[in-house]
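User: Protein folding is very new to me. Would you mind checking the protein record under this note? It all follows right here:
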Amino acid sequence: MSGLSDAPRLLKGGIILIDPTSGAVQRVIALQYNPDLLTRSLTPQGSGSTAAVSQPLRLKGPPIETIKLDAEIDATDQLASAGQNDAIVEVGLHPQLAALEVMVYPDSGVLIRNNALASVGTLEIAPVEAPLPLFVWSKERVVPVRITDFSIVEEAFDVNLNPIRARVTLNMRVLNINDLGFDSKAGHLYMVYHQGRERLAGMASSSSLASLGLSSLF
């Protein structure tokens, strides 16, 4: 036996779009290839400059966390096995790229309806509410995010100038409980993530003072 059946299944990272009110899943976008590098930044939220001198350790909320990743999308293997009528032959990577791009586009139908309302004199029109993205990077990291920056580098094209190889850079800000509130479904998801950090931290062993070359602090 080869033993390949016992090999662990490679999970994919990706984004789930949900209805921000009901939590219903609208679309699941799995990355074709998991990037080798994921950059995260956490900015602590202190209690403010006034209290910083006398109470420097007080935190007014979770840190501002940002995530950056570069994902590659390649149609080469699909083109090699595709039939003449397959979408990958007709339009290349446009559908895969568009599925990511529409995360930062307002729904066109809502824009049209809002324009119609404005034309009949409606004084206040609410901005378009987009689906809520959840960034998924294993079961330990399912976090609500806002896309803050999104860039695409198209690196190769077919004879019809459809992109067949591209690199996508996503910059995201994690939406925490201060952004979402405790009563929303997204707020619940964030608190699961927050408490998961505390649970994982509890699994890490604590080193001794001696390992740092100290016998005591005072």
Remarks:
- The beta strands are 14-18, 25-30, 38-46, 59-74, 132-136, 142-157, 163-174.
- The longest strand covers residues 59-74.
- Residues 150 and 170 are 5 Å apart (CA to CA).
- Helices lie at 49-52, 76-81, 87-91, 94-101, 108-119, 177-180, 185-203.
